[in-house]
Amino acid sequence: MAIATVNPATGGLVKSFEAIAPPVWLGKVEGAAAAFEIYRRTTFEQRAAWLHRAAEILERDRDRLAALATLEMGKPLAAAIAEVEKCALVCRFYGDRAAAFLADEVIETDAGSSYVTHQPLGAILAVMPWNFPFWQVFRFAAPALMAGNVALLKHASNVPQVALAIEAVWAEAGLPEGVFQTLLVGADQVAAIAADPRIKAATLTGSEPAGASLGAACGAALKKVVLELGGSDPFIVTETADLAAAVRTAVVGRLLNNGQSCIAAKRFILLEAIADEFLDRLTAAFAAVRVGDPMDPAVDLGPLATAAIADELDQQVRGAIAAGAKAIIGGDRAALVAQLPEPLRGGSFYPATILTDIPEGCAARQAEFFGPVALTFRVPDFDAAIALANDIPFGLGASCWTQNPAEMHRAIADLEAGSVFINGLVKSDPRLPFGGIKRSGYGRELSRQGIQEFVNIKTVWIA
Ligand code: NAP
Known about the structure:
By secondary structure, the protein is of the alpha/beta class.
């Protein structure tokens, strides 16, 4: 994939970038290793000052940075602004708490003194996706840098300007040279970079094939890797749910970020008693969604990030319909494009879509739909809801809507997911660990658990 900014709202090429050649990235890896020898000796106070300064820069340049994200991947501008603000939040969160999260832990043993201490690993390779092009990077970088690691970012090829802007934020914040570097390289270079002995660990947020590929490279080199991969999260609605709140949340959960979120609610599992009413309300809400230029503050749903993503989603929906599913709203990309003003007709738009009657055995039941498409299912009872929720290769974040305490406990105990949200939107929060199970990946980001992923948990025993 070429490294370039293509405006997904129009399909127009804005700017192309040359991928750096291996000797150049080898030099940057060397620079990272050299920087680590100095950076690892800096104090938590110094690092916290750099992270607080980065937070100030993010807030000062919020509108300019947000506009870059919208230009490169098409999310509505208000969502991009909120994303940049959340990056400032995570910088302050770790700036203020890393020292406590990584404090030595005294443990009584037969020793005169024994304790656990936490040390940074070195240069960490971060392979990141375009969907939250600032947030995904900062949620990795803030804890990794506070722990004393140095970072090399290989960002998605369609967000090069964001990738360079992030590097510039860290440089202006005052991080020593080589501590945070962006590598403009294609995915074909990732395995070789990961194999370099100066890279000590890696993390990837993205698709299953990309995760499997980096996981294999790190396995061969015996390096730690954290993988945050895809999902097809369930959203269970029972008879006792507050339907108004559930529908409101379902709309946000499915359409946020133009439907391109790993933790989006993707499969709506509805108890028969409320299914008709829920679907009527969800359809009305989807019908009211305003599609158009994501720079326009009145627009709710912008284009998908690339033409290839829109084509793939279209194929998935057509495949489901050919297999017997029904689109009760949306599903007709050509009809949507025909309604758009001329400059947007080359954009990668896709309508807000609801599929029902998805038959057993249909590929859609096991796949991730990365766009504004709600897959809906009716079930006779709560047992069937849990069974259907778990009948998927993924396990990221599940949402369950019920007022029944027994059902709440059952959902928490039995849903196969990295997180369970009862009567709420699945979302990431710096205070809570974030990650998946099954084919959604392994390892955790955010919170105390996140900062402990890339440290040597060193045992000290003194006679
Ligand atoms: P993607 O194609 O896997 O791209 C993600 C990153 O991996 C990009 O930097 C990409 O580089 C790189 N990459 C692609 N193929 C690779 C390979 N074979 N080896 C090494 N690196 C490779 O994913 P995407 O389409 O951008 O993102 C969508 C997916 O990410 C969805 O499945 C979504 O659910 C998942 N996601 C998960 C989380 C989470 O926290 N669990 C968060 C966000 C997104 P190029 O751009 O150069 O190809």
